[in-house]
From TrEMBL:
This is Alcohol dehydrogenase-like C-terminal domain-containing protein. Pfam families: ADH_zinc_N_2. It comes from marine sediment metagenome.
Amino acid sequence: EKLDFLRDSIEAGKIKSIIDKTYPLSQLADAHKHYEEGHPKGKIAITVV
């Protein structure tokens, strides 16, 4: 029931994820450094291609 509410809220645009920065997998160390230095203002995404 709670998951249904969460899904419906996301689909309705009531809940949004804020992405601070996106890094390719090859720059994982840079992403970790960005996080450890306390810079993120949202989520850090890692792209895997």
